[in-house]
Amino acid sequence: MAERTSKAISGDDTWTDPVYIEGYFNLSISGTFSATVTVQRSYDKGSTWVDVDSFTAPAEEVGFDPEYCKYRIGCKSGEYSSGTVNIRIGHEDHEMH
């Protein structure tokens, strides 16, 4: 089953929809922007979010989380200045052939 979310962010305190991740995942941050983009994880279904990484420039990353948990990506209040941040995070479960 595939889990993914994407969003074009152009303002403060704006986040992708949360997505459940387990195993390897892809993270794409693109666009022309002046902002700090924060990746957050939640082990309690989104009640509490913890910062796990941040970016100030476009990036293409592969991550791994051994535990089934929620992720979201966005710009915290006061960390967005201008432009559009295009974000995509996701993974797909499949058998290797």
Description:
This protein is an all-beta fold. Helix content is 0%, strand content 68%. It contains no helices and nine strands. It has strands at 2-9, 14-15, 19-30, 33-35, 37-42, 50-55, 59-75, 80-83, 85-92. The strands form two sheets. Strands 1, 2, 3, 5, 6, 7 and 9 form a seven-stranded antiparallel sheet that branches. A two-stranded antiparallel ribbon has the order 4-8.
Could you give a short description of this structure?
The protein has 97 residues and is mainly beta. It contains no helices and nine strands.
Overall pLDDT = 92
Order of helices and strands: EEEEEEEEE
Overall body shape? globular
Quaternary structure type: single chain
Structural class: mainly beta
Rg, Cα atoms, Å: 13 Å
How is the secondary structure organized here?
Elements: E1 2-9, E2 14-15, E3 19-30, E4 33-35, E5 37-42, E6 50-55, E7 59-75, E8 80-83, E9 85-92
Antiparallel strand pairs: 1-9, 2-7, 3-7, 3-9, 4-8, 5-6, 5-7
Tag the structure with descriptive keywords.
seven-stranded antiparallel beta sheet; 0% helix; mainly beta; 68% strand; 97 residues; two-stranded antiparallel ribbon
